[in-house]
Design a protein that fits this description.
Elements: H1 6-16, E1 18-22, E2 25-32, E3 35-39, E4 44-49, E5 52-56, E6 69-74, E7 77-88, E8 93-99
Antiparallel strand pairs: 1-2, 1-6, 2-5, 3-4, 5-8, 6-7, 7-8
């Protein structure tokens, strides 16, 4: 059960969202970009984090499915991905795992 309202979710996405284009629909989503390495004090540690987006469930395009093309644009550039999995979290948000 979600604690926040639809307005709360929209406000959160508006504050932190990146532009996402999926099935000719553009909306805002939280983009978690992949990390490949983090430099430690004495060594470089590998981190295996896949890219993902979190979006308000009502923004999910109709007919969205695995392997759809998705473009994410943020302050650092444009990124092209494909949908790996769509995971509604039951709180009004949907987490989408991305693949290259």
């Amino acid at each position: 059960m979600a604690v926040e309202t639809a307005a709360d979710r929209a406000s959160f996405i508006a504050d932190f969202g990146a532009s996402v284009t999926w099935r000719a629909t553009t909306f805002l989503a939280i983009f978690d970009r992949p990390t490949s390495m983090i430099a430690g004090l004495s060594e470089v540690e590998l981190v295996n984090r896949e890219p993902s987006i979190a979006l308000v469930a009502t923004d999910l395009p109709s007919g969205a499915t695995e392997d759809d093309a998705i473009t994410v644009t943020d302050d650092f550039g444009n990124y092209s991905f494909r949908c790996k999995t769509i995971r509604p979290d039951g709180t009004g948000f949907v987490n989408v795992d991305l693949k290259v």
